[in-house]
């Protein structure tokens, strides 16, 4: 009897093909995971930038009022911060926070305003500008 072995695949060939296929699928799923992480970070970065710019604009609007200056130094009214911290925690997670810092330089008569938003780990967005009376 003549046995024809050229029809079909052997078990070893199928196993090698499946192994190569599995390695390819693992590579694709790894790239997909990296893409998702990048999307999450980009979304958080955009949100932090928007929230920081909103506060920065509030500060600039308050700076237009001469009553918010004390001997040349800009004083940010407490109402300007109202709700901003809560909004940051809601949109970026409970460990997120925002800070505003105003430093007056009497020599130059300029106020340096810095607004920063921090979230998850060491991620941070910072805006800085100078305001004169």
Produce a short descriptive summary:
The protein has 133 residues and is α+β, with helices and mostly antiparallel strands. The chain has two helices and five strands, in the order αββαβββ.
Element layout with pairings:
Layout: H1 11-63, E1 69-70, E2 73-74, H2 84-92, E3 97-105, E4 110-119, E5 123-132
Helix pairs in contact: 1-2
Question: Domains counted in the coordinates: how many?
Answer: 1
- Neighbour order of strands in the largest sheet: 3-4-5
What portion of the residues fall into strands of 2 or more residues?
A: 15-25%
Share of residues in helices: 40-55%
Q: Return the string of H and E elements.
A: HEEHEEE
Structure commentary:
- The chain has helices spanning about 10-65, 85-90, and strands spanning about 70, 75, 95-105, 110-120, 125-130.
- The protein is an alpha+beta fold.
- The chain has one domain.
- The strands form two sheets. It has a three-stranded antiparallel sheet, covered by helices on one side.
- A hairpin with a 2-residue loop joins strand 1 and strand 2.
- The longest helix has about 55 residues, at about 10-65.
- It starts with 10 loop residues before the first helix and ends with a strand.
- The model has no long low-confidence stretch (mean pLDDT about 85).
